[in-house]
Amino acid sequence: MAVYTEIDDDALIDFIAGYDIGEVLSCKGIAEGIENSNFIVTTTTGPYILTLYEKRVRIEDLPFFLGLMDHAAAHGIPCPVPLRTTAGETLRELADRPAAVVSFLAGMWPRRPTAEHCREVGEALARFHLAADGFQMRRENALGPTAWRELIEASGDGADEVKPGLAASLSGTLDSLLADWPDELPTGVIHADLFPDNVFFRSEHLSGLIDFYFACNDILAYDIAVCLNAWCFEPDLSFNVTKARRLLRGYQGVRPLARAEIEAMPLLAQGAAMRFLVTRLYDWLHTPEDAFVTPKDPVEYIKRLEFHQGVRGPESYGID
Amino acid sequence: MAVYTEIDDDALIDFIAGYDIGEVLSCKGIAEGIENSNFIVTTTTGPYILTLYEKRVRIEDLPFFLGLMDHAAAHGIPCPVPLRTTAGETLRELADRPAAVVSFLAGMWPRRPTAEHCREVGEALARFHLAADGFQMRRENALGPTAWRELIEASGDGADEVKPGLAASLSGTLDSLLADWPDELPTGVIHADLFPDNVFFRSEHLSGLIDFYFACNDILAYDIAVCLNAWCFEPDLSFNVTKARRLLRGYQGVRPLARAEIEAMPLLAQGAAMRFLVTRLYDWLHTPEDAFVTPKDPVEYIKRLEFHQGVRGPESYGID
Fold first, then answer.
1. Which candidate from A23, A25, A202 shows the least CB-CB separation from B25?
2. Does B41 map to a domain?
């Protein structure tokens, strides 16, 4: 949860007047997203989402994120569409911060994902990869393998407070991961953070993908590996191969994977676990005690990483 | 801000199905209220507010609060109306907590209240006092004078950390306040917490009163004294007598004050400053550092209290 910035009511009314969406009826900070301040703004024409970009987001990345949502929505992906002012702008300023208004998506994220949810997520992810194919802007993955090393080093001895020996073990795992990290798999724009709270369902069907603020250019199959980590472990951290099989089948029904992508899945899944492990570890050790946001426990990603290190091969993910 | 409880999507759909308000489209935790968890639930018939009552609210008080909103709304007060299920219930249970759905009010609370806002607040407060006159349930003021003594004692030496000598000075002030505290002024149901963030305006006119969770039976003019503290001090804590005059005129245009109520205003205003001073002091000293809610600084109420102790008489509040 996070609402960091207070918006002056008069300033908001002036801001919304720039769009052709009617009169402001209310504005309420919502507990959604952890990097930015988000609000539901209800006007006489309906609800909208207003986002103020806080300092963890780089301003120079915003045209990529907003442009990507615009492109994806235009190509049939159910994602928020950035609204344009009557002057044609999507990226503006409010309360001294970069700001944008996007369309409101119906649906709720699934607290207890089922195998059928996983199938629809796989399918939607593949559709997104295809839809984003014609998007012309580029953004490097700021949380790719190079960053993992930096985050481990920045965590320093603190890692061993989380689990004795963790610093050395992570460093060793990362060495072998990077030695084998694939460099010839198909790349494109990936979501890079498609966790259950970023996917809405309505009447049991997928109705929206949100939060494109980690999207970047990277290995497409790595995006699937993120989803395997995010969707296919049970609350007790056991791996549910049925969910993985459905997720991968859903994906391949839209975009069949090449043999090399399938073979790389155990390694990519280790990498995805490493990515969330090291950012959580860093936040765990660096979040001030009085912060609004409670950092997430990194330990569950140690367990996910260990699972992926122990798999026999792609068949452990239910790939036929 | 506060959202404490996570709601399962399936449980919410079942819960909302109990009302005749259509299909759930979305549910988002909002940063509103500090005692409870609040959500905007959007259905195919529009937005609603869902509240889960957390442990700071006593369950046995909920029928009073919900009944009061129902009664006030039926008597023309623009306040949230508790929805009834098809079986006629307003107080239910969700996520192991007492829960209620109320109507959604348009409007935003004024970040920079003007004298005209104050006039409308005074008028609305008087209308609420008259509307609540026929309400049959009773609730004692759990944060009345008796509680002030307990809160000062519970703060103990901590008060002197906030300001040296504060504990003794508060105790002395309270002694003289209680010795003179009026016991023959008109009483009735008061809101008891009508701060700017509990009053919505739309197009410069008052459109809603919210958050009745401190409402109780007490001296009616004490409710005005709360508003003098809440609405008539500038950010630099200087007292704006123009705002006070407009607030009191707005009130008296609907419910003229008796001479005794006017004479008591300086004392009631001291009491109201004391009430917010001691609860803020207590929260300041007792809120864990890792809590979601940042406690409010009690020091600004020391300054308000000092102002009220120094006034010449009711004329200092602009009462003609």
1. A202
2. yes
- Domain end, chosen from A60, A78, A103, is at A103
Convert B28-46 to b/e letters by CB count within 10 Å (16 or more is b): bbbbbbbbbbbbbbbbeee
- Among B25, B94, B109, the strongest candidate for a mutation testing the A interface, having the largest count of A CBs within 10 A, is B25
Q: How far apart are CA B218 and CA B224, in angstroms?
A: 12
Chain A residue with minimum CA distance to B113? A9
Structure tokens at B288: 């864990």
**CATH number for the domain that contains residue B231:** 3.90.1200.10
A33: left (phi over 0), alpha (psi -120 to 50) or beta: left
Total domains in chain A come to 2
- pLDDT tens-digit readout, B213-270: 999 999 999 999 999 999 999 999 999 999 999 999 999 999 999 999 999 999 999 9
Assign residue A80 the CATH number of its domain: 3.30.200.20
Q: Which of B48, B72, B103 is the last residue of a domain?
A: B103
Residues A152/A302, Cβ–Cβ less than 8 Å = no
- Which amino acid makes up residue A76? G
Closest partner CB to A111 (pick from B3, B9, B42): B9
Residue of A nearest to B291 (CA): A290
A6, A10, A23, A26: best mutation site toward chain B, by most B Cβ within 10 Å? A26
> Does one domain contain both B275 and B170?
yes
Q: Which residues pair with A228 in a beta bridge?
A: none
**What ipTM did this prediction achieve?**
0.87
Q: Do B290 and A294 touch (CB under 8 A)?
A: yes
Q: What is the pTM assigned to this prediction?
A: 0.91
Dist CA B14 CA B266 (whole Å):
52
Q: How far is A151 from chain B (nearest CA, A)?
A: 24
Q: Tell me: do A36 and A122 sit in the same domain.
A: no
